[in-house]
DNA-binding transcriptional regulator, FadR family (Rhizobium miluonense), 249 residues
Amino acid sequence: MRREDVTERGESSAQPSGRRNLVDHVAQQLRQEILGGISPPGEKLPSENGLTERYKVSRTVIREAIASLRADGLVEVRHGVGVFVSAAQSFPSANLLATDPARISSIIEMLELRTAVETEAAGIAAVRRSPAQEEAILERCKDIDRALRGGIATSEADFAFHLAIADATNNPRFKEFLELTGKKMIPRSFLLDHDDEAAAANYIVQIQAEHRQIAEAISDRDEQAARAAMRLHLTGSQQRYRSLIRRSR
């Protein structure tokens, strides 16, 4: 029996089922690494065998995933040498990352992009953060608490908290991504009904509880918990905005 057949049948049940889903899963993981700056322009990707071992999939799946990235212009194949992150690949510009605050759908699009990047950042930060970076994350979380107690807007402190996590990845691309989006990545005012101060306060308290879960997981060096907490935080925001769209119809 060929090795590919064995690998194809032995792919982890935790992975998406079906070859097409596996290809999409692997391509998405590699795409996040490239766009997040983990694999910078010009860097050689692991060998085909290396990627096969990493993702526990067949060589066919890896080849199709690489072909997808190549079609997107993210990688270039140098025959006999390997696969490299495209040197022409540049980080998205501020215009590309701009949102239209008048369109809730535009905000959801940004949140989906943030979920892909910041979930990865939280996991990496849990592994790589230094004691000083851990302290900075916890302190930024306390800053949000102080803003809450003082009755002042928390958006700026919220943004600083996410920046501290990006900084703790020790990969400058993550922080650059957030800086490109700017403070508008916390478009909180659209969710708050200023005619109902109690509801607004409850919403902020809920968000802050999610922040604490993220900070504690990173502090505990729990990579999986950090990813899960960040994903829950940002997908929850997506659902809140989708609720606004439904109510507006």
